[in-house]
Amino acid sequence: MTQISQAQARTIIDTAFAKGDALGLKPLSVVVLDAGGHVLAFSRADGAAPGRFAIAHGKAYGAVMLGMAGTAQMKRAEDQAYFMAAVNGVFGGQVVPVPGGVLARHDGAVVGAVGVTGDTSDNDAICAVAGLEAAGLSAEI
Amino acid sequence: MTQISQAQARTIIDTAFAKGDALGLKPLSVVVLDAGGHVLAFSRADGAAPGRFAIAHGKAYGAVMLGMAGTAQMKRAEDQAYFMAAVNGVFGGQVVPVPGGVLARHDGAVVGAVGVTGDTSDNDAICAVAGLEAAGLSAEI
Amino acid sequence: MTQISQAQARTIIDTAFAKGDALGLKPLSVVVLDAGGHVLAFSRADGAAPGRFAIAHGKAYGAVMLGMAGTAQMKRAEDQAYFMAAVNGVFGGQVVPVPGGVLARHDGAVVGAVGVTGDTSDNDAICAVAGLEAAGLSAEI
Amino acid sequence: MTQISQAQARTIIDTAFAKGDALGLKPLSVVVLDAGGHVLAFSRADGAAPGRFAIAHGKAYGAVMLGMAGTAQMKRAEDQAYFMAAVNGVFGGQVVPVPGGVLARHDGAVVGAVGVTGDTSDNDAICAVAGLEAAGLSAEI
């Protein structure tokens, strides 16, 4: 399985930040996780709130651990709230089931995930996708 | 009390996997717990997401600890969400109250539980039942 | 990076059990983790104590997360006990730093780990190595 | 109070990595925390073990929260192990009291901390200092 390199992780973060600037979004925070849900890289833009690492991480972590991107997680949470609450319990409360948690795929396999937070969930996801595509990876929002 | 043997646990897992293949389901993960809720055996099929152990475990653990299979737990969660949330609190957030958590009975007594995850909850339960029956145990979904 | 397949995980477990039988060891429990520290497969032999999953897991989990096999972890714990205690803290108390946590390598890269518990730590490690070699992987004890 | 900017955080990480390369060290992981102990930036070099975020974070987190760099924490742990263990308890086990956790000061005030892990603790600290100095901050090891 392909692994996301540190160079790719930097490209993802820098491109997501640039996309946010281009769209005039609020300061973003971006995390890149590997295929096991472990942190490869993170950056929090100047002016972002101190707790943004945990939120970015929670969006990406749930995506990797469940193999389900943020949009699908949000739908499940809306359809069956107690199920996603329970799933969160077994993952130590580390899952934030909203857009902005974007799966990274290569040749179809999940190789990690990106979590973006700071603006609306939909805008966060747009920036994550821009980052992944710049790094040559497929994005599933 | 009869205990589920390691040989039976393997039969349960292998049969559940075979049932999933026969039905064309997504890659499954299957856990077998003993009468104390402790892990006897687990297998995660190739291609399943990394977090599947925790979900399979949560389905089976709740079944054993409450003496209540996944279908009954789901009904309770839908009827009285705060109660199941509170129950989950006292069990450290380790309970996933949906089908696919199937009680194993022998001569009427609970001897353990099987947790299956990967496809829809109902399909997960079908595979758990197939596994338990192949091992000579009664299944309560 | 190569991933350990479910077929390899079964080979590891079955071979470790067979090695334990051949050596006349106590009932073993064997877990196989992937490169992210997530459970691929586990089996607990008949007669093993109920808490053996947690111990097997802790041996293998620390090995993967630290990139350091059980023997090296034990040396560090003996040389600088407060450091390994602190490391354990950041991993939620999930690290058991003794032999029997064996790194699985392929072409030099860590692709997972095996945790064996039940007999002496050294005998546990011997069985883990037998399992990994039967699966075509290099073992670092 | 001066805050570490994202540009400075990048300088710290890139310089620490370059120092590690120049010294021929193992792959490093570097975290930069703000004055509240919250993550500003992190990078894990290719080939580093998956659990390195937690260790880097633990080194830097303890430094900020206690206002005491890694070397002083290690001395305290060696002199009075139960005290540092108790301190760790009140911080949720998130403190790793060894060199490589380096305080960042500006005009005497603590403005954050850097945590480096991957090689020996002393080498880790050397790389953290190089990073902080390149970013125009004072380092207390």
Automatic annotation (TrEMBL), chains A, B, C, D:
Signal peptide: none annotated. This is Heme-binding protein. It comes from Loktanella gaetbuli.
